[in-house]
Amino acid sequence: MTTQEIFSRLQSKFEDNDISIETEAVLEPFIVVPSSLIALISEHLCRESDLAFDSLQCLSGVDLSASDETMEIVYHLFSMTHQHDLTLKVIVPKVEPHVPTVEHVWKIANWHEREVYDLYGVVFDGHSDLRRILLPDDWEGHPMRKDYKEPEIYRGMKVPY
Amino acid sequence: MLAQSTASEERKFLELKPFSDEMVVSMGPQHPSTHGVLRLELRLDGEIVREAIPHIGYLHRCFEKHAENLSYQQIVPFTDRMDYIAAMNQNWGFCLAVEELMSADPKFAGVPERAEYLRVLAGELNRIASHLLAFGTYGMDIGAFTPFLYAFRDREKILLLFEKLCGARLTYNYIRVGGVSRDLPPGFLDDVREFIDYFEPKIDEYNALLTNNKIFLERTVGVAIMDEAMAISYGATGPNLRGAGRKWDLRKDEPYSIYDRFDFDIPVGEEIPEAGAVLGDCWNRYKVRMDEMKESVKIIRQVLDGGLPDGPIVAAMKAIRPPAGEVFSRSEAPRGELGFYIVSDGSVKPVRLKAKSPCFCALSALQELSRGLMIADIIAIIGSIDIVMGEVDR
Amino acid sequence: MVQQLSSQFLHLTSLLSVETVTPSEGSAPGGNWAQAFASQFLGFLPGWIGLVLVMSVVAAVFVAVVPLVPLVLVLMERKVSAWIQDRVGPMRVGPWGLLQTLADGVKLIFKEDLIPPQADKFLFRFAPYLIFTCSFAVFAAIPFSQRILVSDLNIGIFYIISISSVVAIGVIIAGWSSNSKWSLFGAMRSAAQMVSYEIPIGLSILTVIMMAQTMSMEGIVAAQNGAFAEGEPIITLLGVEVKGTILDWMIFRSPFTFLAFFVYFLSSIAEVNRTPFDLPEAESELVAGFHTEYSGMRFAVFFIAEYANVFAVCAIAATLFLGGWQGIIDEDQFIPGLLIIFGKTFLLVFVMMWIRWTLPRLRVDQLMNLCWKYLIPISFFNILGTGIWGLFFREDSALSIGLSFLIISLFVVSILGIVFNSFGKLKPADQTALAGNIGAANLQKLKTTWNERHGQQK
Questions:
Q1: Taking all residues of chain C, what is their mean pLDDT, rounded to a whole number?
Q2: Contact B139 C276 (CB under 8 A)
């Protein structure tokens, strides 16, 4: 099933005009969904037998530039049953970003979301165990953001060298 | 909902109930069989594991942050440091992603055919080396020391081949965007043929020594079953998924490079009721790797027999400056599907580069797999999902 | 009289530590040469002081010489493992690396002696000595030849069992006092393991005692020099009368002692914590088990004691089952008894090393299963069988030994036949199936439990 078909399915199912599709000027078309709907849409995509996106390939945060007000969360889905793929994007504000978790749909989302939380500071609501995963527990800030300033001192060690 | 997520932020360590029979043990980050610097927080009731919580990040070297400040060519050596056991495949996975991004550029001619053959040769040799290490260390985890040295003896031969090929033994930086870094040294193909002629019978020897050993079977058969649904949900790929019985290999199902020209099988786990082997148990995950080495030998033999085409080894390019856009590209590394998500703004540096590591996904299943097993089984699981912490932490 | 006294004395020493054990080793032969020596040369002293002096000298020589055995064994282990693993092993220190273990020892002596700050310092220091002492005290009762025997106790084998089981206490002390959870795991594992495996060991030895009708080690050796050695030679070869002592070895005496030998050997591998039973120090699981926190010379003491134990259990196996210091063909041989028993012992040690470098490790529950569900029932069956065998054949005769040989060879041939016939014809997958014993019923059980545990996710 192509992204376009899935897009029209989603539009009719959720009757939400905020869902939009981007097909021009990109290699892989993607669907932009509002952050409030991502959990529901994910569940729909995973459970419907003709869609059956049973595999979350990748979940990444993207911060395009320091001047932007928003960041993106990108979901790369793949169906092991039908062998089609789909890219979903959620636009979140940089200030207090909140996205519902998709952990209950794909178990791997647990760690992926922790990583995005760790590096981008996006809070995944409803996540069972939202802690830092790659960085130390006492790290301050979220380093993959473009506006991140590295600390002068970490545990008494001078950071910039 | 919100309150819950912030509350769990505070919960950094396991709570230990005083006066209970349970004890909390920290296994790692310095431990002989955590395959690097993995730390497991074990809550134990005697030898029984109630909970095993993985803590990762000890080898986090900010690969993704670094990549945002480097040109595409400069990133290649950084991919070496991810899965240092199979660096060729990591180079390859990254280059595939960049090449896919560049395919929108009409000036990019594509990877020359000779380079594709060289990539297959290097990639499959590295797959054997990687699986050999997995086999050897798994034997050592289970307590048999000798297979480890046999595996290293044979891996050494592959490393010597790579040293001839690109001068490095571990971090090759051989596969570059648009091709490979250098052509074959004289006599290299004969050396490869000599190696695979030597190596192919050895696989059966190793199977006799370890795979079918009674004690080894007792330790691994039926232990920590990760069935197909669970493997897919946890994003486990490669041998871990195939061990669960799913015939899925990107080289066959979504052939990249020139894999569609070769004839090889995808080994999958098998259910052997008499032995008790269940799809997705430790033994099947391990066995798939042993069988995959044979298939890799098959592919290498076809490369050698078919003869390499002449021609350039790298596409002529002025600078690697992919057009703006984004791509998610996957390739079949020895430990599973390695994905690279690259966002480009048309400059020489990526805006965002995310590496989806197969080990990261497989390791996240450990907590569920290990519940209710014994300490010795934890070791068996870690070995059977075959993690490299460099790739998990990036 | 003296023997009785000394045995009581020794019995006491099994409960005490180093200072009391060493004189006791000398005290045992006091009945003959030590007392004679004392009265002849130290007659001016009161009798008991002379005896103590002689005993002390003997003990000092003994303690100085016996640790050489572990030194040789460590080198042998490294060389054997190297050959098995397609390596050359240590080659740099001395010719063919012969001095490697000496260099290692020197290194260990010079290393810093670390004691973890939270450890129980007294027990931490005490444990290595306890283990060391008990391991070496065992040697006192092993007859190395007709003349080299520190003490011929009338309860020799009982003494050996009792004193070697004290090692388990030492291991527990070491693990507990280190105040490390990994050490404690190792200690608990080894306590469970040693205590469990002592039962099949004891029962297997009991079959030998029943056959020999004595607990004295020398007596057991003498009992393996029975009918055939005394009687007519089987054949005369180059003027040497081949009398066939080998037929009198305990292992061939009856089918049950034959079985008992293997039970003993298996259990003793577990008793000395070697692969596939090396759970107390499983390096891939428990880092180093009960001696994780030890370093320097204290670690070396554990190491030496471990190899002394290996040598001791193999020497005991050689003495009890393989005729001790007696040769293969005849009793009055050209080769000295010391060389013969060393040869037999090193052969068994080699087999242990061979096993160690070939097999993986069992899990704790499988280890206990093997002991309690297989080895102990087999041992009881052996004792019953030996008793019945003894009823029928009160004296060793050609009939009894012939019958025993017949049964043993039938047994061996049928096992080999089963293995080769069924294994050779099968496809690799079926070979795996045969090798695995978990079985179809277990598979179903596994699946059910799996579904119960993960039912909700499907």
A1: 75
A2: no
pLDDT, one tens digit per residue, over A84-104 is 888 888 888 888 888 888 888
Q: What is the ipTM score, two decimals?
A: 0.88
Distance CA C360, CA B217 (A): 10
The ranges assigned to domains in chain C are 40-103, 111-423, 426-458
Domain span at residue B15 reads: 2-55
Report yes or no: B341 and A60 within 8 Å, Cβ to Cβ.
Answer: yes
- Does B49 share its domain with B84? no
Q: Given a contact as 3+ CB pairs under 8 Å, which chains touch C?
A: B
Interface test with C, best of B215, B369, B370 (most C CBs within 10 A): B215
Residue-range domains of chain A with CATH: 3-158 (3.30.460.80)
Task: Say if residues B58 and B37 touch (Cβ distance below 8 Å).
Answer: yes
Structural domain tally of chain B? 2
Taking the CA atoms of residue B51, residue B53, residue B54 and residue B58 in that order, the dihedral angle to the nearest 10 degrees is -130
Residue contact B218–C434, C-beta within 8 A: no
Residues of B within 8 A of C284 (CB-CB) are 32-33, 140-143, 379
What are the b/e assignments for B218-232, b being 16+ CB within 10 Å? bbbbbbbbbbbbbbb
Given a cut of 80, whether residue B109 has pLDDT beyond it is no
The pLDDT value recorded for residue C37 is 67
B279 and B144 within one domain? yes
Q: Could you tell me how many residues make up chain B?
A: 394
Rounded to an integer, the average pLDDT of B135-158 is: 89
B95 in the same domain as B45: no
Same domain, yes or no: B31 and B106: no
Q: Compute the distance between CA of residue B370 and CA of residue B378 in angstroms, rounded to an integer.
A: 6
Closest CA to A155 of A133, A142, A139: A139
Same domain as B224, residue B75: yes
Helix C255-271 vs helix C296-321: crossing angle, to nearest 10: 180
Residue B51's φ and ψ, nearest 5 degrees, are -155, 135
Which residue in B has a C-alpha nearest to residue C274's C-alpha? Answer: B143
Strands (E), B34-176: 39-45, 48-55, 175-176
User: Least CB-CB distance to C432: which of B32, B215, B272?
Assistant: B272
**DSSP letter string, A56-85:** EEEEEEE---TT-SEEEEEEEEE-TTT--E
* pLDDT at B365 exceeding the cut of 80: yes
Are A27 and B325 in contact (CB < 8 Å)?
yes
B111 and B39 inside one domain: no
The answer on B9 and B90 residing in a single domain is no
- The residues near A19 (Cβ < 8 Å, ≥ 6 apart) are A7, A10, A11, A31, A32, A33, A34, A37, A41
Please tell me the distance from the alpha carbon of residue C344 to that of residue A20, in angstroms, as a whole number. 83
**Best CA proximity match to C134, nearest among C309, C317, C345, C8:** C309
CATH of the domain at B296: 1.10.645.10
DSSP string, C346-411: HHHHHHHHHHHTT--PPPHHHHHHIIIIIIHHHHHHHHHHHHHHHHH-SS--HHHHHHHHHHHHHH
Partners of chain A (3+ Cβ pairs below 8 A): B
Decide if C363 and B144 are in contact by the 8 Å CB cutoff: no
Asked if B375's CB is within 8 angstroms of C440's CB, the reply is no
Kindly determine whether residue B217 and residue C434, on different chains, have CB atoms separated by under 8 Å. Answer: no
pLDDT band for position C83 (50/70/90)? confident
Distance of alpha carbon B298 from alpha carbon C127, whole angstroms? 57
Tokens of B371: 């519940």
Report the alpha-carbon distance of residue C180 to residue C177 in Å, rounded: 8
What would you measure as the largest C-alpha separation in chain A, in angstroms?
57
State whether B39 and B153 are in the same domain: no
CA distance C264 to chain B (A): 20
Euclidean distance between CA atoms A5 and A86, whole angstroms: 11
